[in-house]
Predict the structure.
Amino acid sequence: MPELPEVEVVRRGLERWIGGRTIAGAEVLHPRAIRRHLAGPVDFADRLRGLPFAAPRRRGKYLWLPLGDDAALLAHLGMSGQLLVQPGRAPDEKHLRVRITFTDAAAGELRFVDQRTFGGLSLHPLLGEGLPDVIAHIARDPLDPLFDEDAFHQALRRKRTTIKRALLDQSLISGVGNIYADEALWRTRLHYERPTATLTRPVTTELLTRVREVMTAALAVGGTSFDSLYVNVNGESGYFDRSLDVYGREDEPCRRCATPVRRRPWMNRSSYFCPKCQRPPR
DNA sequence: GGAAGCTCCTGAAAGC
DNA sequence: TGCTTTCAGGAGCTTC
């Protein structure tokens, strides 16, 4: 499942392989893939034709390819989205949703492949700081040098919610998904249902340190892949799943205290934690 | 207005 | 063997 490290791996691949290429055409094979482009597939293809891609940018789990100074192609990978750079002669993938070709045929094609169709592409105007308008509400991510730790802590203190919900709230901190939330909470010894209003500034600082730590480590090995659903632009998987401490390790011993890791249903998904290291709140 | 819950979707795995 | 159910989860939308 693509979170910040996986999206950053893809962004770097796009920068290397398609930055500066001029679009020859776009083909939408599944309308749901561009559902956030309200003007529809024909407009989507018409507006892309003839434009050059500038260097890709990212905020949290969103990445975008600027097209000149005032618009961009915005991408979100959702659960299973892949942006692949493929030779034009390569056979179509089973879940190929959008194909973008370039004037330089040697550059190959940019393909958006998405089995579960939670991801998508869309075109949007850019705001003053070069951010697509529809993601203006997305907070900076913890690897962004301009991420404001103090403002984040104050926001947590104001909220009447629990820490894992807050970590997944992209308007508070972006880029964190279910896997890295569980990993960072385990490293900080925080239970996922700890009320955010009870966090002290040192605890928030420690949590942010652990979030950055786990994301940086994942980025170094190409991200986390449990299956073929997350790959980089060349179709290769990452290796961080071998380094996960709690996520997906139900009944296996905690790597700190050997207590069996627990899994609890949580918000239509799962939370993994060590019942000894991460005591529930009173 | 803020917080919680629902929904979209596909295919692998589990259950019967 | 084959059918049905469960599970995975990001984020926009709806409900309370």
About this structure: Chain A has a mean pLDDT of 90. Chain A has six helices and ten strands.
